[in-house]
Amino acid sequence: MNADLQAALLDFIAQPGDFGTLASRVVRHQVATIPAYGRLVNARGGFDGDWRSAPLVPTDLFRELDLCAAPPGDEIAAEFLTSGTTTGTRGRRRVPNLALYHAGMVAPFVDHVLAGDTTPRPWLALVPAREDDPHSSLSHMVDGLAAQLASTTTWAMTPGGLDLDAATAFAAAASEPVVVLTTAFALIHWLDGADELRPLPAGSRMMLTGGYKGRARIVEEGELLTMIAARLGLAAEDVVPEYGMTELTSQAYGRPFAAPPWLEIRVVDPQTGQDLPAGQQGLVAFFDLLNLDNVSALLTGDLGCLDDEGRLTLFGRAEGTVVRGCSLTAEELGVMGSP
């Protein structure tokens, strides 16, 4: 960890300033300290100082490479693993230091999910507790936020699955505004499986993350919002989507998704990797300043477009899309052989 650069990033979280200058410093740090990324940048002719020119690393490569500045075997603060639901192989992100993670997660959550209201209130978490799933970045985030902001937390996702009785009892006992934090998968399971649900008190809020797949069916967002309104009494504006990834330190929230000042959302052409103008659909990419000791310039497999304010609308996965930049990146990092 570069202590001076970490301090500058912590200052930026507290008082955002010049993103570009700090982003260029982050890229230089990553080129010098992450061997695989250094090889990629050198294969592309080196870093020219413009953070937008930093090569985008496909998030799929976290399944094959250790993209961390700390050498293998060094002590780290956390190791986060992806679910592996898409390919069956779990990606891995080793995090040497969690100071930036913890500093950056609170304000966006408070602004969007809690609508600025930090009054402690009961929380229902339909995600595993951190001790039950220590490699889940979502569990780590929810656990850390709950410790700071919740009056009490009911963890209804157990190692054996969703505890329907606990979740339903929480709703039945709620006598003041509450907060529900859930994946769409778990929420659909709860709404489908609970015989009777009492609407939550007025002023309650929900953070909803993940795709809209249930155990046996796919539910579109509009249908799910209708179910939430009918069974839990929450209007669409009370249900706040979250976009987070194991490979990212930061999160985006809203409908469409808005990023905090330290996270730049980009939409790029799948064939050229060049940024697309607002309104045009392409692959979603990020530059996350807080990914200091991993890789900040990341390319996802999600399709999306930006509006004029830089907010993101998603259109699902880019299944079957041939992404020229991804295959070249893998070859340059020595992961794949030549075709």
The second-level CATH architecture of the largest domain is 3-Layer(aba) Sandwich
Structural Rg: 20 Å
Number of strands: 14
**CATH-defined fold name of the largest domain:** Rossmann fold
How is the biggest beta sheet arranged? 7 strands, mixed
Q: How would you classify the quaternary structure?
A: single chain
Mean pLDDT: 90
The total of helices stands at: 9
Helix content: 25-40%
Give the CATH class of the largest domain.
Answer: Alpha Beta
What is the SS-derived class?
A: alpha/beta
Termini separation (Å)? Answer: 37 Å
Low-confidence regions: 324-328, 335-339
Task: Provide a quick synopsis of the model.
The protein is α/β, with parallel strands linked by helices and 339 residues long.
